[in-house]
Design goal:
alpha+beta; 7-stranded mixed beta sheet; binds flavin-adenine dinucleotide; about 35% helix; 21 strands
């Protein structure tokens, strides 16, 4: 029996809305699913969100996007990691790379071999010098990873203009059948018995009925939050930053293949290089610094001429208690927000889209299945909590004595899940390992060591290797990483060659 297509209605046309529309337009059969996106020009989008994680490459691959075209359209650059300046204490810095530190030897993780070498007086090179991505960042170099090279495993993500990305996906989705309606949702109708959403009424009076609704309406969360009354879980007790000033400036000559995050008295400043400009912002806690002071701090640290007036954004760290309720799922800012310290928001959107598509109702069974909704919520909760713990680690393990924000975060009570992770690391140098999702073992190591933490003991399984052999292998690996990086072109050269190739007839 032929059923009519299931109608998915997406409210919101920011990055979340258009990423969702693009994925559905690509993956769902057009005779089985119909897609409508409603966005309001009067309300607009947040429009920041310039740094991403490597997983975005999988999303773009799923859509079948050409990478060079995507980079051109979004003024993108490559990102090998994030540099944290002054997070442990002023004057100190470290890099969180997208890639491995060292290698697994004899089935034992690299940090144990390195710690053993340290305690046994072999005086090994610094831990981060065993990462190809870190050393490439030191030289502002970039090269596409070679999946065959065992000693130099790394990955990369992008910096891009989030507004241009949403425009690009809008054109892309509409060309593949997504319908766009410009208008403001004023009223949401629910089924009298089950409470499922049945339709939306726009300011113009137009009524849109649907089977399944995706709330991408930003911080207001007009479907899940306002209408379905799913409460907000507040996490500001751990992540106290609640404001950001954002302003782009002219591009500087320091064209880094990494995001820079610079700790400040009341928060931190981001610096993100794009092809046409540099994105800057100051994320801060209004309890510890005033809006005026934070604005002045940001402007004083720009390394190019400001392109316009800084824009103030207000937010709260936290998430909705359920991201999926009835026949409505929220994603993007409508489902939660963790400050952009590790560029996780766009990844959370991507993950929500992928999980949602696996659990969508079908035209034959159009009623959303509560069991699948529960699984979606479980996966979402787990991911949010892991990311939350990872972000808290950056704050709490600091030695910025005498600064009120930093003293506060050093002494507050941690979530039990993070306390457990820190205890394991302290006792044995063990770090979390998740088969799915973020953050990887190497990411935890980068931040734990970077913030100055050092375990009491290494894993005794590392003791199998004779010390002379360990010394030799460490030096050999260190040299091979250096040799590999020395041959890399600069980030700027790669962008010029890859994104702006000479016209065909001019190529000799
Ligand atoms: C300071 C800051 C920095 C950030 N940096 C990063 C970063 O580096 N990396 C990263 O991954 N993420 C970052 N993010 C997060 C990122 O900006 C968002 O996750 C992303 O833009 C998605 O936003 P959204 O689409 O959920 O919401 P929005 O961009 O707010 O879009 C909401 C949409 O809903 C529509 N809408 C709202 N109400 C109605 C209504 N009643 N009727 C019709 N339409 C309506 C609006 O018109 C708009 O189209 C940052 C966020 C902030 C605040």
């Amino acid at each position: 029996m032929q059923s009519s297509p299931l109608h998915i209605v997406i409210v919101g046309g920011g990055s979340a809305g258009w990423m969702c529309a693009a994925a559905c337009a690509q993956q769902l059969h057009p005779q089985r699913y119909r897609l409508t996106l409603i966005e309001s020009d009067d309300i607009g989008t947040v429009g920041v969100g310039e740094a991403t994680l490597p997983a975005l490459r999988d999303f773009n691959d799923m859509l079948g996007l050409d990478e060079a075209q995507f980079m051109r359209e979004t003024q993108g650059t490559f990102k090998l990691g994030i540099e944290f300046r002054g997070w442990d204490r002023p004057g100190q810095s470290y890099l969180h790379p997208f890639g491995a530190f060292g290698q697994l030897w004899g089935g034992v993780e690299f940090q144990h071999h390195w710690m053993r070498a340290r305690t046994q007086g072999l005086n090994p090179p610094p831990f981060e010098e065993f990462s190809c991505a870190v050393r490439a960042c030191d030289r502002n170099a970039f090269e596409f990873p070679d999946s065959e090279a065992r000693s130099t495993v790394y990955s990369y993500a992008y910096h891009f203009d989030a507004g241009l990305y949403a425009d690009f996906l809008r054109r892309w989705s509409m060309a593949r059948g997504a319908k766009r309606i410009e208008g403001q949702v004023m009223d949401v109708e629910q089924h009298g018995d089950c409470g499922h959403i049945t339709g939306l009424t726009l300011k113009s009076g137009q009524r849109i009925e649907g089977d399944f609704f995706v709330d991408c309406s930003g911080f207001r969360s007009i479907l899940l939050g306002e209408k379905l009354q799913v409460p907000w879980e507040d996490w500001t007790r751990w992540l106290p930053c609640d404001r950001a000033w954002a302003v782009p400036c002219d591009r500087s000559r320091d064209f880094t293949p990494f995001t820079r995050s610079i700790a400040q008295k009341g928060g931190w400043i981001w610096r993100i290089p794009l092809q046409h400009r540099t994105g800057n912002g100051h994320v801060f806690s209004s309890h510890f610094v005033s809006e005026d002071e934070a604005r002045a701090t940001l402007l004083a640290q720009l390394d190019g001429h400001a392109q316009g007036e800084p824009r103030l954004l207000k937010f709260r760290a936290g998430r909705r208690a359920q991201a999926w309720k009835g026949n409505c799922v929220a994603m993007g800012l409508a489902s939660g927000f963790l400050e952009p310290l590790e560029s996780t928001s766009i990844f959370l959107i991507q993950k929500a889209i992928q999980d949602m598509m696996r659990m969508l109702p079908t035209p034959e069974r159009p009623r959303a299945d509560d069991r699948l909704a529960r699984e979606f919520n479980r996966l979402s909760d787990e991911l949010y909590e892991r990311i939350r713990d990872f972000l808290i680690l950056h704050y709490t393990a600091n030695r910025r004595e005498g600064e009120p924000l930093w003293d506060h975060v050093r002494h507050y009570e941690l979530p039990p899940s993070l306390r457990h992770k820190l205890a394991l690391f302290d006792a044995r140098g063990h770090v979390p390992y998740f088969k799915d999702g973020f953050f990887s073992r190497d990411s935890w190591l980068a931040v734990l060591f970077g913030q100055g933490l050092m375990p009491r003991h290494h894993d005794c399984l590392a003791d199998f290797m004779p010390l002379a052999q360990l010394d030799g292998r460490l030096r050999e690996l260190h040299a091979s990483v250096a040799t590999h990086v020395a041959s890399m072109p600069t980030h700027e050269q790669v962008i010029a060659r890859y994104c702006h190739p000479l016209p065909r007839q001019a190529v000799s």
